[in-house]
Amino acid sequence: MARMLDVELDARDGAAALPARILTTRGGAKFALSAGVTLEVIERPEAIRVPGSAPHVLGLLAWRERRIPLIDPDGSLGVPCKSTPARYALVIAFEQAPDVQVEHGALALDQLPQFVTVSDTQACDAPQRWREQALACFMLGGEAIPVLGAEIFLRHLN
Q: Which Pfam families match (predicted)?
């Protein structure tokens, strides 16, 4: 089940601090997901290709006695997908409503996610490219990192 964000207080300034995962797509785009929607990393994922699936759906991945879609996040974001196998898969979850079954999928990545804690003091405007999709945005190392919802990747799978 998707978890709510764990909120901690940042001892430096008393601002709320939220855990997040920064992902770099195989095409080089950076974005963050709430830590509450990220479940586990699978090394060297092997997906079974499904004929007729959307180009960004790389196939079905065996995970915890079920099959979940392996998704190229670039394709979900409108960028061409890579044809080479992914090095990692990050399993994500999305719950549309309390009484609706949780959806699972996995994002194809070539780099491990970066674990960070973000505070309100890092908030910034999302870059123009991300304004329609970003739930929020924060500055890290001089770079604006948009926060996206898992539903962007788990809807429109076919």
A: CheW
- pTM of the entire predicted model: 0.85
Q: How many residues does the chain have?
A: 158
Q: How far apart are CA 39 and CA 125, in angstroms?
A: 28
155/153 Cα distance (integer angstroms): 6
Q: Cα separation of 34 and 91, whole Å?
A: 13
Within 10 A of 99 (CB to CB), how many other CB atoms are there?
A: 6
Structural domains in the chain, sorted by start:
8-154 (2.40.50.180)
Task: Please write the tens of the pLDDT for every residue from 31-46.
Answer: 999 999 999 999 999 9
- Cβ–Cβ under 8 Å, residues 54 and 158: yes
